[in-house]
Amino acid sequence: MAKIVGGICTSHIPAIGNAIANELFEDEYWKPFFDGYPPVREWLDKVKPDVAIVVYNDHGLNFFLDKMPTFSIGAAPEYRNDDEGWGIPTIPPFPGDPKLSWHIINSLHDEEFDLCTCQEMLVDHGFTVPMSLLWPERGEDQIKTIPFCVNTVQHPVASPKRCLAIGEALGRAIESYPEDTKVVILGTGGLSHQLDGERAGHINKEFDLECMEKIVTDPYHYKDMSIHELVKLAGAQGSEFILWLIMRAAMKTTPKVVHQNYHIPISNTGAGLLCLETTA
Amino acid sequence: MTNTQEPIFGTTFFDGEMAMKGYGLNKMCYSFNKAENREEFLRDEEAYYDKFGLSEAQKEACRKRIVLDMIAEGGNIYYLAKLAGILGLSVQDVGAQMTGKTVEDFKQMLVDAGK
């Protein structure tokens, strides 16, 4: 049977894509951020997951406002990256696992979650930046991926309660898959940031640090928080924290923290990283 | 359709009302994913505005490069970022413009948030 071996939360700020392309790993600004990742990559090397389910939000590459699904999932043999318009280099495609995708789609449907299914899906920096941070070297046997995309562009955005519920169902779907597949779930985005309006530049360190703690010990702390309240605390784009909630809810028991890092600022954002290992 | 909750300072909820108001503007910005469209825009901005049916207020906000006005006219920051990219503006440049700060002061504010 398939098993969720762990979960990783990481910010997915687009500037990271450029910093990787320019190899700014030792740069004074970037070093405190990049130094967080080697211990997570060591853990991945040890655990060797077969599939990464990447919970992320599209920022206007695959989806536009003509069709804006709340929850969508890739069901394709591969996922291509493409030009986002402002200069992150495009990177090679990622292999998919359509058989597991359809198992998840059918399982979630049985639990009354109806996903938008995508046999073609362009993946933007929300997906590619975490993948590049965690698997910088991609060989023939590179990890398979399944993009799980959540609308955070247009309100109404799914509530924390809804995200926790779909995360739980995602966890049950994975663990009912009959193949011996090791799955890691990535919850990407966040933490606090706001790009738009007179409140641009809003970062809330206190809230972020609480998120870093509660996502491990008590994710249901956020169950009754409204998106409005989340935006107020975390900033307009800080609502991406719901993606972390989906990841965490898929893990049934309180995980062990393998590694964590938090750094302000990366671009306009409080950047968080957590590597969580499943406990029995 | 409309968000009726208490306003948050300096924050626009991009809801159904704003998404309808800004549809043409955002669609134009979404088109900038393709290099040939970015080039077409740079060749003749006015013609490009008309191609996507921008309102006069949206055109004026774009001509003057005033991001707060673009947002007021229904622009969504994720799509507007693609226009900002053409204009050579980073998210810190845009943030500084919207908050009335210099770019240096805006960056310092971000650094100070970590203290």
Architecture overview:
The complex is a heterodimer of chains A (280) and B (115). Chain A is of the alpha/beta class and 280 residues long. Helix content of chain A is 33%, strand content 21%. In chain A, helix 4 (98-110) crosses helix 6 (160-175) and helix 6 runs parallel beside helix 9 (241-250). Chain B has helices spanning 16-21, 23-31, 35-43, 45-51, 56-64, 67-72, 77-86, 91-99, 103-112. In chain B, helix 3 crosses helix 4 (45-51). The radius of gyration of chain B is 15 Å and the shape is globular. Chain A binds chain B through residues 15, 59-61, 64-66, 82-87, 153-156, 194-201, 203-205, 226, 228, 231-232, 236-237, 263-265, 267-268, 270, and chain B through 3, 5-6, 8-16, 19, 23, 26-27, 29-30, 32-35, 38, 67-68, 71, 76-82, 84-86, 91-92, 94-95, 98-100, 106, 109-111, 113-114.
Multimeric state: heterodimer
What do we call the CATH topology of one domain in chain B? Protocatechuate 4,5-dioxygenase, Chain A
The CATH homologous superfamily of one domain in chain B = Dioxygenase LigAB, LigA subunit
Structure classification of chain B? mainly alpha
Number of DSSP helical runs of chain A: 9
- Give the % helix of chain A: 25-40%
Helix content of chain B: 55-70%
State the end-to-end CA separation of chain B: 40 Å
**Mean of pLDDT of chain B:** 95
Q: How many helices of chain B?
A: 9
CATH architecture of one domain in chain B: Orthogonal Bundle
List keywords for this structure.
heterodimer; A: 280 residues; alpha/beta; 10 strands; globular; B: mainly alpha; 9 helices; 0% strand
Briefly characterize the structure.
The complex is a heterodimer of chains A (280) and B (115). Chain A is of the alpha/beta class. Chain A has helices at 14-21, 31-34, 38-47, 98-110, 125-134, 160-175, 205-217, 227-234, 241-250, and strands at 3-10, 51-56, 71-74, 78-79, 94-95, 116-118, 144-150, 182-188, 256-266, 269-277.
What is this structure's SSE topology?
The complex is a heterodimer of chains A (280) and B (115).
Chain A: E1 3-10, H1 14-21, H2 31-34, H3 38-47, E2 51-56, E3 71-74, E4 78-79, E5 94-95, H4 98-110, E6 116-118, H5 125-134, E7 144-150, H6 160-175, E8 182-188, H7 205-217, H8 227-234, H9 241-250, E9 256-266, E10 269-277
Parallel strand pairs in A: 1-8, 2-7, 2-8, 3-6
Antiparallel strand pairs in A: 1-10, 3-7, 4-5, 9-10
Chain B: H1 16-21, H2 23-31, H3 35-43, H4 45-51, H5 56-64, H6 67-72, H7 77-86, H8 91-99, H9 103-112
Helix pairs in contact in B: 2-7, 3-4, 8-9
